[in-house]
Specification:
- The chain is mostly helical and 123 residues long.
- It is rod-shaped, with a radius of gyration of 45 Å.
- Keywords: Translation regulation, Ubl conjugation.
- This is Poly(A) binding protein interacting protein 2B.
- It comes from Sciurus vulgaris.
Length: 123
């Protein structure tokens, strides 16, 4: 080895004398991984507040959905059973397809030669 390579060693490399017995630097806190426990109460309080806020939002959202369900008209829920029977009868009705139209015209009291009614026009 020549002398120039020893002089150019980076300052981050430390000798064994500079390091403590446990392998950590003397300036580094050996309890650094446990420092979060120092603020454990604050952390617990913050997490509890977040959980309470989330619970509050969930309850508000559920209440909003319940109100929305009450506002919507749902026939199966909102109509009485008699209305269901009436609905079935209405569904059973059909419009005539023209087979009985001659019978209806022969029995009609309307004048087929009358002028078309136009509101607001006097004849």
């Amino acid at each position: 080895m020549n002398g120039s390579s020893v002089a150019n060693t980076p300052p981050s490399v430390k000798s064994k004398e500079d390091q403590g017995l446990n392998g950590h630097d003397e300036k580094e806190n050996p309890f650094a991984e446990y420092m979060w426990m120092e603020n454990e109460e604050d952390f617990n309080r913050q997490v509890e507040e977040e959980l309470q806020e989330q619970d509050f939002l969930d309850r508000c959202f559920q209440e909003m959905l319940d109100e929305e369900d009450q506002d919507w008209f749902i026939p199966a829920r909102d109509l009485p059973q008699a209305m269901g029977q009436l609905q079935q009868q209405l569904n059973g009705l059909s419009v005539s397809d023209g087979h009985n139209s001659e019978d209806i015209l022969s029995k009609s009291n309307l004048n087929p030669d009358a002028k078309e009614f136009i509101p607001g026009v006097k004849y």
